[in-house]
Each structure stands twice: as structure tokens, then as C-alpha cells.
Amino acid sequence: MTYYPFLKWAGGKRWLSPYAHALAPAEFGRYFEPFLGAGAFFGALEPPAAMLSDCNAELINCFVTMRDQPDHLYSIMQRHQENHSDEYYYLIRSVSYLSALEKAGRFLYLNRTCFNGIYRVNQQGKFNVPRGTKSSVLFAHDDFSKASRLLASARIEVCDFESTISAAGEGDFVFCDPPYTVSHNNNGFVRYNEKMFSWSDQIRLRDCLKAANERGVRFLVTNAAHYSIRDIYQSPGFFINPVSRASVIGGGNQYRGRYSEFLISNYQPDFFGSARDLPKARAAQRLN
Ligand SMILES: C[S@@+](CC[C@H](N)C(=O)[O-])C[C@H]1O[C@@H](n2cnc3c(N)ncnc32)[C@H](O)[C@@H]1O
After folding, report:
1. How remote is the CA of residue 286 from the centroid of ligand 1, in Å?
2. Cα(118) to centroid of ligand 1, in Å?
3. Which of 76, 127, 180, 214 sits at a 20 to 30 Å CA gap from 205?
4. The pLDDT of residue 159
5. Minimal-distance CA residue to ligand 1 atom 3
6. Is the CB–ligand 1 distance for residue 56 below 6 Å?
7. For 80-116, how does the pLDDT look when each residue is reduced to its tens digit (9 = 90+)?
8. Is 179's C-beta closer than 6 angstroms to any atom of ligand 1?
9. Residue with the nearest Cα to atom 26 of ligand 1?
10. Cβ contacts of 29 within 8 Å, gap of 6 or more
11. What's 175's domain CATH number?
12. Predicted pLDDT of residue 241
């Protein structure tokens, strides 16, 4: 286990992050990640200049606090660890803090102890996920100072993806991991996300990436391996590479054809080029 990501996030790309270097362009200017979530890809790539953003203000406040006040945040987490219980969880869940620091501690505490690390709010915007089974508030691999150093030079903002992507210029690299609106396995819409990220948002994202492509930006976007996604990205100079979690992690033949995600880019990543099957190539190296 590594010290990063420090959050658990639905749809997180921790499983893809070991291949981040083989998937990113060999060289690029600034790094842009407009759907940050737990930021697994950023953490693996460790780019020197980054613009990170998400529309979730609580999440972004947690990243900013981790960057600017890691020691204070750690102290708050120690306090949560000491007091953690059923009663305490629901008490903290109901509190509205004023300080950004306490809000960040609350967010991280709830993320680590709620049911499955889910983030869900009610119509009043109040977090309403029940307590989960996990009781660790702090982990042995936590290193807030290291996470802070990793984030030190990053710009971190709450905003819609469009303003982040439109700030990228020639030679920059944009990695996008949007919520999925369609799913590979039921040929239909993902109900919950349909509201949060609609089909028109998917089209808006495609249009932003097309405009970025015209400016000389390189992009890599993930999405469900669904014909409707292929349809909207099919374009000269765009590469649509299917992967499944199993094929990326296991590299075994038995997983062929069970693709669940597309990795779409306007350059062909090394991962799909000479070293098409990186896990297999690595395994072969180990055998030699
Ligand atoms: C699939 S998650 C990203 C997961 C991330 N790659 C990781 O490794 O944890 C998608 C993120 O997009 C954010 N999001 C949804 N709609 C957005 C919008 N219109 N603009 C910016 N971010 C948005 C959500 O808050 C969520 O954090």
C-alpha cells in the first residue's frame, strides 16, 4: 500500500495508475485533471506542474487542506481515531463546521469510515451515508507530509470540467475520468449518474476535448466500453483502446473480449504500442 491516494472514491482509477507512465504521453507541459476524485492517476504520474479540479467543493477543500496544512489535518484525524464509534460517527456526520480545516477532517474521517467510501448527499446537501464496517481512521501507510509535497505545486480548484480543459494549451496533457453515463454491461444508462452527469455533459466533454485537440493539447479520457461512446469519439486521429480491469491487471488470455472501459486519446500511448501487453511483458522479464 502506498501513502496515496488518501481517499477512497467511487470509480477511482487506482487500478489503472500503475500504468500511468505508459499511458501518458512521453513528454508534456502541464498536467490537467478536471475530474479529480481521489486523483489516483495524478499521484502515480507525479507531474511537476498540475491543475487539478472537481465540482465537489468538499473534496477540493480536503485536497487544499492536505496540501497546505497536513500536520493540522493529521491531528484532527488522530482526534477522530480516538473517538471513533457508532455514536461519534453520526455526531460528526450531523455537525456543520465553519473552518475549512475541520471540514476537511470531517470529510476524510467520513470517507474512511462510511459505507464503502461512498459520497452521497441529500437534497439539502447533507452527507447521508451510513457508517460502514471499517474502523481505521488512520492507516500505517498514511504520510500526509508526503502527500502535501506531491500537491505543493498544484493549482487545485472547484469548477466545472470545461473551464479546466479550456485552460490547457499546446503541449499540455489532460487526463479525464468523468462519471460514466452508460454502462458496458447493461446496455443502458447508469441511473444515479444520469442526473449527475447527463448525456449532454458527455457530448460537452467530447466537444471540449475536440477543441483542445485543435489547440495541440494531448488528452486521455476514460469511459465505458459502450457503442454510444465509440460513436461520439470516432474521429480521424483519435485512438479508442478497449481495456478491462482484469486484462490490465492480470494480462491473461482468459480475459480477452471482456472489455469494460475505453481509453480514448489523440495519441497512441506506449502501453498499446510496442508493449501492447505490458503485464505479460513484465511477467516475461521476471522469468528471464
Ligand atoms: C469517476 S470520478 C473520478 C475518479 C478519479 N479518477 C479517481 O481516481 O478517484 C468522477 C469525478 O467527477 C466529478 N464531476 C462530476 N461532474 C463534474 C463536472 N461537471 N465538472 C467537474 N467534475 C465533475 C465528480 O465529483 C467525481 O469526483
Report:
1. 36
2. 13
3. 127
4. 98
5. 37
6. yes
7. 999 999 999 999 999 988 899 999 999 999 999 999 9
8. yes
9. 37
10. 49, 169, 170, 171, 172, 173
11. 3.40.50.150
12. 95
Instruction: Determine whether the shortest distance from the Cβ of 262 to ligand 1 is under 6 A.
Output: no
- The pLDDT of 19-46, averaged and rounded, is 97
C-alpha cell of 155?
A: 493549482
77 in any annotated domain:
yes
Q: What is the pLDDT of residue 196?
A: 82
**Do residues 21 and 107 share a domain?**
no
- Whole-number Å distance, alpha carbon 176 to ligand 1 midpoint, is 9
Q: Quick check: CB of 12 below 6 Å from ligand 1?
A: yes
What is the pLDDT, as a whole number, of residue 191?
52
The total number of structural domains that make up the chain: 2
What average pLDDT does range 157-168 have in this prediction?
A: 98
In this structure, are 50 and 168 located in the same domain?
yes
What ligand 1 atom has the least distance to the C-alpha of 17? 8
Cα of 55 to ligand 1 centre, how many Å?
Answer: 7
Residue 37 lies in a domain: yes
Which cell numbers in the block locate residue 62?
Answer: 480536503
Q: Is the CB of 34 under 6 A from ligand 1?
A: yes
